Amino acid sequence: MIYLDNGATSFRKPPQVYRAVEEAMRACANPGRGGYPAAMRASETVYACREAAGRLLDCNPEQVVLTTSCTHGLNIAIRSLVKPGAKVTVSGFEHNAVTRPLHALDADIRVAGRRLFDWEDTLECFERELRRGVDAAAFTHVSNVFGYILPVERMAALCRERGVPFIIDAAQSAGTLPVSLRELGADFIAMPGHKGLLGPQGTGLLLCRGDARPLFFGGTGSDSVNQEMPDYLPDRLEAGTLNVPGYAGLTEGLRYLNKTGVESIFRREHRQLERCADGLKKLGMRVFAGEHQAGTVSFLPGMDCEEAAEVLARQGIAVRAGLHCAPLAHESAGTLESGTVRVSFGHDAADSQTDAFLRAAAKLPRY
User: Fold this and answer.
1) Which of 97, 111, 207, 236 is the most buried (most CB within 10 A)?
2) Is residue 351 scored above 80 in pLDDT?
3) Where in the chain is the domain with CATH 3.90.1150.10?
4) pTM
5) Alpha-carbon distance 209 to 166, whole Å?
């Protein structure tokens, strides 16, 4: 199988990730719940994950909250910053993991920037909404549909200048682009463990600059007499038993990235993005490509997108078609009715993958 659906999850992990998961299953008990060797091993495993994340993401280990997914982290962040009915500005390319929690709070959502790959439009619209007055901002680093890299550094600076708290969704950037909690100054940065960070599914990280409101309540292995959640991180946000085997695997994914370098991975993915986009254009497909693009490209064939993905699957090519849980992004790009076929490269991106995909795509009708 030629796997080109890394925007959904990284499927082929470094071998040490698989080994770490199995070893933790055999050697680790419940962290923070005992002083015997298996419990201590679990606590050490969890802390090693925080340390590896801190090195990669430029923050202190105590600022790394372990979550079950990026969606989990975003819900914590949004519930911490956004009150019911609050005015919140978002980009025109958000995932439902941002927009649905905001809708649940009946927030006044103000969409800023609708033009793909256009930093000037994104920044102009974003700054205009900040001038109008908002209570918070939430924006993606990279569009999961189109690979558009938003100018988050400048957007973050605008928020800081106006004292607007903000959240960054790094679901498609963590592990591929530099992400620094210290430099961005975000209140929260959420990310999954199972995509660019190369860990198992069921893991995620939430980077916290300051205090947060718990989403779940329960045992933490600390301050047990107190019937309120602890007032310090990360315990305040980590009720219940942690996924120790998952975080053991994520630790190895993070160590791989610290050793390899995200810049190297980005160059590898971007090379294949350009080859893929050029090849699709030559085949007569409508391709969404431009400046400021990560290793994801969407296109429209001359047939139903879901059917096209099935045709490719029968040839051993794994891609994703549809709306990708991001109707706002498709609305911005004018593809809400059709959806797109999405090709997303990963850390193992190679010429052979792109060549095999283009050979299969040549059998699809032209747009």
Assistant:
1) 207
2) yes
3) 2-11+262-361
4) 0.97
5) 11
What pLDDT is stored for residue 221 in this prediction? 78
The fold adopted by the segment(s) 15-260 is Aspartate Aminotransferase; domain 2 (3.40.640)
- Helix, strand or coil, per DSSP, at residue 115: coil
pLDDT of residue 70 exceeding 80: yes
User: Are the CB atoms for 213 and 82 separated by under 8 Å?
Assistant: no
Q: What 8-state DSSP symbol labels residue 5?
A: B
User: Could you give the CA distance from residue 274 to residue 276 in angstroms, rounded to a whole number?
Assistant: 5
Radius of gyration of the chain (CA): 21
Cα angle for residues 1, 191, 163 (degrees, 5° grid): 150
Query: Which regions of the chain carry the CATH code 3.40.640.10?
Result: 15-260
pLDDT at residue 33, rounded to an integer: 76
CATH number of the domain at 2-11+262-361, please?
3.90.1150.10
Chain mean position to CA 315: 29
pLDDT digits (tens, 9 = 90+) for 103-157: 999 999 999 999 999 999 999 999 999 999 999 999 999 999 999 999 999 999 9
Average pLDDT taken over every residue of the chain: 97
Confidence at residue 367, expressed as pLDDT on a 0 to 100 scale: 84
Do residues 367 and 285 lie in contact, with contact meaning Cβ atoms separated by under 8 Å? yes
CB 137 within 8 A of CB 167: yes
What is d(CA 171, CA 169) in angstroms, rounded to the nearest whole number?
Answer: 6
∠ CA 51-139-344 to the nearest 5 degrees? Answer: 75
| Distance of alpha carbon 308 from alpha carbon 192, whole angstroms | 28
Closest CA to 353 of 297, 272, 281, 291: 272
